[in-house]
Amino acid sequence: MTATRPTLHPPHAERTGTVRALMRLRTYVGPAMPAIYASMAAYLVAQLIALAIPQVLEAIVDGPLADGDRDAIVPLALLVLALGAGEAAMFALRRWLVIGPTTRVEARMRDALYAKLQDLPVSFHDRWPSGQLLSRAVSDLGLIRRWLAFGLVLLVMNLVVIVVGAVVLISMSWMLGLVFLACSIPLWIVGYRFEGRYSEVSRRSQDQSGDLATAVEESVHGIRVLKAFGRGKHALSSFRAQAEQLRSTEIEKARLDANIWVWILIVPAVALAICLVLGVQLAAQGELSVGQLVAFFATAAVLAWPIESIGFLLAFSLDARTATDRYFDIMDSENAVRDPERPAALDAPRGELAFTDVHFRYQDSPERFGDLLDGVDLVLRPGETMALVGLTGCGKTTMTALTTRLYDVTSGSVTLDGVDVRAFRREELRRHIAMAFEDATLFSASVRENVLLGRPELTGDAAADPAVAAEAERVLDEALRIAQAGFAYDLPDGVDTKVGEEGMSLSGGQRQRLALARAVAAKPAVLVLDDPLSALDVATEARVEAELRTVLASTTALIVAHRPSTVMLADRVALLEDGRITAVGTHSELLHESEHYRFVISSLEDEERRAQAEASDLIDGEGLESRPTASVATRPAEQTEPKEAIR
Amino acid sequence: MSTVNGVQGEERDEYTKAESRWIRRRSLRLLGSLLHPLRAQLWVTMAVIVVSTAAQVAGPAIIAYGIDQGLPALMRQDWLPVGLAGLAYLVTGAAGAFLIAWYIRMAARVSQAVLIDLRTRVFLHTQKLSLEFHESYTSGRIISRQTSDLDAIRELMDEGINQLVRGLLYMLFTAIALVWLDWLSGLVLLATLLPLVALTRWFQVRSQKLFRRSRVASAKLIVQFVETMTGIRAVQAFRSERRNERVFGDLVEDYRDVNARALGLFAVYNPALNFMGYVAVAGVLLIGGFRVADGVLEVGVLLAAVLYTKRFFDPMEELAMFYNSYQSAASALEKISGVLEEQPSVPDPAEPVDLWTADGRVRFESVEFAYTPDRVVLPRFDLDVPAGQTVALVGSTGAGKSTLAKLISRFYDPTDGVVELDGVDLRRMHPKDLRRAIVMVTQEAYLFSGSVADNIALGKPEATFDEIVSAAKAVGAHEFIEGLPNGYDTDVNKRGGRVSAGQRQLISFARAFLADPAVLILDEATSSLDIPSERLVQEGLQTLLADRTAVIIAHRLSTVAIADRVLVMEHGRIVEDGSPADLIGGTGRFAALHAAWRDSLV
After folding, report:
1. Do A547 and A612 sit in the same domain of this protein?
2. Mind listing the domains of chain B with CATH numbers?
3. Which residue ranges does the record assign to the ABC transporter domain (chain B) (predicted)?
């Protein structure tokens, strides 16, 4: 018994890690524990039956066989059969009992991980590639489930069985029993040493497969770039390098595995060889009956699997520990963007959005850099449309992300109707403020579901009510009209066509318009649009802008703008420069007052010069004045071939 | 078999017999081709495992010898037989142990070699498959082929094969030893084989369907998971967390349900095996016991027969486990072989034409393009772009501009007609030549994990650092890159969310600049740039495009200023074609577009 101690309760403090790490699973495993205990009990009964069968053998050998009593053999053989049936039934029970509970633990942990990841702020996701998250959600949790159902049950119970078996062996012959046990001691020592090395390699291997998964994802998501540059081979070579690393780790793992197997197999062989010689000698001296000798070897045979399995089960437990650590790496991540304990609430926000002395820096930004946002002060009056203008990378997108707490300010505050956005529950805040992003993400769902994403009350089960369905239809129509996304009706299944990764692929402009429709459909008090029209052509952009004006008349809006045309939507313009708002005013005011603004927004001066030069050189100077109408007769393509092409 | 060709019918639960046979053959062929190069190692591995298993099986026979021969001899003070038995037990045990360790290491080498081969093949093939395939098959599925399916195969190779080979050999040797020791006991064992086979057959049929369903369920789970994590901003901004949790929860429950059913099957199969083992033991005991009582059989032999009979069934549980991993791996292999069977719709030529240095003349000759026969995107047209010309493609969204660009870069092949570079059909060019000559920059500026410099160097892997910097300078990206925490060494993945869309475009522009192609296609490549950056890029473009052919798609007509020629497209047709000045001066669509655009600049 004491020989088993080092494994589960090692003497050194830092070695307690494995058990303590696995104990963290308790929160989730709790409800499954009774089933796991019951399964352990069933397994123990099964093994005790297995240990009883050699006793029957002994009875047969020393009884009927020695006496030549044929009739007595039959009931004893039937007893063996009955015990066997019992053992099989217990084995079935052992498995059946844990199926439901442990798969439910796995499902619960998976749901919890997903919920946690959705809750964690964007800054977390900036740091964690999705491949690493995926390997935790799928393979690590599968491994933990298998460990709970088999590994844990077998590890604990096999130790018990070994102890019981040892007692049985010693009671048969203390000398043989002791020899057998003494010989297993090296096994515990080796297993104990094995633990540290294997866990290190095992963690490395799991991390490397996570990295490999990330490489695969990138090669698929970036396929257009790889194809455009013909860099498939190049990507392959770096993928290969990673795969080779994983391979050598796996081979290292196999080496450790092979070493422990040597011990696992050789120790019982030595023990049994000694027992054979010793046992035969004891039998020759008459200290042991032949039946007892037979029973001894039959018992040793029963014990062979529990003893052999310890090494494998230890390795399994270490894998499970690694998986558990990786799981809790995420579950322990502190979410700095939390809901307040006593949240504020606004029934009908007026939509006053204010930035007061807002500072922001990314956590891992080096100290030599100043804050990205370095004291932003800006007030959007209710109903006002404010354009946000500044150089690429000056923090405009970051500023928009602060409004819905995708990130939290480093210091200062963002307020909605005078209430700090951090005082709201995020759910409520994001109901009041809707966003459209420049890189428009659509999900694998219908156009309808994507557009009505911000209106859960109009979709799903609620839409069974005809009144709700009609309202949903109206909102959808309106949003698609405003965003000029009427193309959705022409898709194969109209607005029920599935889009996103699993659905139809749409062009960048189409996706952007749907994302805009989504933001509009949310009917927020504040609309935050991050350069929402960048992928649209001029004509479509003009139509969207015309429609947007009606929405923006009644909604507070913050619009990141790169183009004068977008700026024209705004009542006022804010210029973000070196982390501060350096000017606020109308477009024409800023054009007059701010040189930086002219630099950032106006291509007119250059363009004017260039266009006028062209105009005077090539046309007679009136071309620009006489604006042609939009409807022009179509000319056949052939006739439009330029001269140099027709050679 | 057209119904299950390639990835078709992959999501189905049931197949006809002919279809199953087709799929099975296909995956066996794949397996064969993977193992073929390793056959020498495989033979050695086999030999090792045969010897080591034989050594392992010898145990009970040696014990029987020790008891039956050693005991009477020792009564006569003859230590030799029992000493021999002890020594033999020790030697066979030690030999078995070392050989198995050797086997484990060799098996790992073989399986890792197979895995790396398969990973490489799937990766390479995925890269070869055309965009058309990727767009319809979806990234989530192609990713799960390369991750979870390969994991299933890894599990089989790591543990499954080990179990199968060792288990089968063990059973075989055990049966041989038993027959050799006592053929009557062997007969008893043989009698139990029939129900054993029937039971296993039942298990196989049931489990196959379940494992297939399990794969499908896990793939769905993965797609939902990845999509949520990559679109986390939109998820949070639109409060879809709760709804996503419900969707994901349902998928998790489906997956759990399938898994639980499969496990339930095991809970029937394994104990049934176990019970059959005891039926055989009881039979051997009965038949052997009578003969020992009659004095025609030795006790030691009976003990050995009982041990062998019981041991015969031991690996069955492992074999059933093997079936577990085999089923997952088999359906994984079926799907992977399906992906590998997909032919790229834009195939590499068998005998490529040499075109080392291209001048850059692009010609479309009666080209037509349609996704499906009833969805013609580009009706038949001709177009000739002389080397060195800069062409601006203008038109509303969906007019076919991008499709035309994709035909030049051979992301698609025309349905009919020929696209030529310097008089050579693109389909006959070596992909290396083609990609060196023609580069396309799209709006979605994808960055790979790695440094900014790595990302730019993708345009020319052998580029020096100075070349990278001068490419960045040429497109006006140098300043912002210098401003990143580690300059050119900044890891874009770690701060992926922080390199803005415009900055991404600048990086991918620098990438194209560095690649220095004869034909450059810019598909909305400057859409996210702010005006100062665009000004810089425009200046850069003047020099960049001076001596090369360029096709520029841009909604912002500022680009047109640097074009030699403008093509206006509408509904897949080129409706206007001329120099910018001519078109602006005319009364066509372009003149109208240009006027509208100029208005927007105020």
Report:
1. no
2. 2-341 (1.20.1560.10), 362-600 (3.40.50.300)
3. 362-596
Q: What tens digit of pLDDT does each residue of B245-266 get? A: 999 999 999 999 999 998 898 8
Query: Of all residues in chain A, what percent carry a pLDDT higher than 90?
Result: 15
Residues of B in contact with A443 (CB under 8 A): 227, 231, 234, 240
Instruction: Find the range with the poorest average confidence among A148-157, A621-630, B104-113, B272-281.
Output: A621-630
- Residue to mutate among A97, A153, A225, with most B CBs inside 10 A, is A225
H helices of A30-127, in order, are 33-60, 66-67, 70-119, 122-127
**3 state DSSP class of B112:** helix
Q: Do A326 and A429 have their domain in common?
A: no
Q: Is residue A10 part of a domain?
A: no
Q: What percent of chain A has pLDDT over 70?
A: 89
Quick one: pLDDT at residue A379? 92
A1-15, A96-110, B121-135: least confidently modelled range: A1-15
Confidence of residue A92 (pLDDT cuts 50, 70, 90): very high
CB contact (8 A) between residue B593 and residue A538: yes
* Those residues with Cβ within 8 angstroms of residue A356's Cβ, 6 or more apart along the chain or in another chain: A377, A412, A413, A414, A415
Please give the Cα distance from B156 to B150 (Å, whole number): 10
User: For residue B339, which of B111, B5, B24, B114 has the smallest C-alpha distance?
Assistant: B5
Amino acid (1-letter code) at residue B152 = A
**Percent of residues in chain A assigned helix, strand, coil, to nearest 5:** 70, 10, 25
Smallest CA–CA separation between A14 and chain B, in Å?
A: 30
Among A62-71, A352-361, B495-504, B529-538, the range scoring the smallest mean pLDDT is B495-504
Mean pLDDT of the A355-364 span:
86
Residue B13: per-residue pLDDT: 64
Residues A192 and A315 in one domain: yes
**Of the candidates B105, B227, B381, which has its C-beta nearest A254's C-beta?**
B105
Contact at CB, A273 and B593, closer than 8 angstroms: no
A134, A257, A273 member nearest B93 (Cβ): A273
How many domains does one find in chain A?
3
Of A84, A269, A365, the CB nearest to B282: A84
Instruction: Name the residue of chain B whose CA is nearest to A620's CA.
Output: B585
Q: Which residue of B has its CA nearest to A604?
A: B601
CB spacing of B236 vs A539 below 8 angstroms: no
Return the higher-pLDDT residue of A491 and A632. A491
Q: Which of B62, B109, B139 sits opposite A251 (nearest CB)?
A: B109
How do residues B279-325 score in pLDDT, each as one tens digit?
Answer: 888 888 888 888 888 878 887 788 888 888 887 877 776 676 676 67
Q: How many CB pairs under 8 A join A and B?
A: 594
Beta bridge partners of A419: A416
Residues in chain A with CB shorter than 8 Å from the CB of B297 are none
Judgement on whether residues A448 and A552 belong to the same structural domain of the protein:
yes
Asked whether the predicted pLDDT for residue A71 surpasses 70, the reply is: yes
Residues of chain B with pLDDT below 50 are: 495-497
Distance from the Cα of A618 to chain B's closest Cα (Å) equals: 6
Residue B592 has its nearest CB partner, among A453, A629, A645, at: A629
pLDDT of residue B385: 92
CA distance B86 to B91: 9
**Could you tell me which chain A residue has the CA closest to the CA of B476?**
A392
Query: B335 to chain A, minimum CA–CA distance in Å?
Result: 17
Measured in degrees and rounded to the nearest 5, phi and psi for residue B368 equal -135, 145
Question: pLDDT at residue A271 above 80?
Answer: yes
DSSP labels, B176-226: HHHHHH-HHHHHHHHHHHHHHHHHHHHHHHHHHHHHHHHHHHHHHHHHHHH
A608 and A481 in a common domain: no
A266 and B97 within 8 Å at the Cβ level: the answer is yes
Query: B256 and A456 in contact by Cβ < 8 A?
Result: no
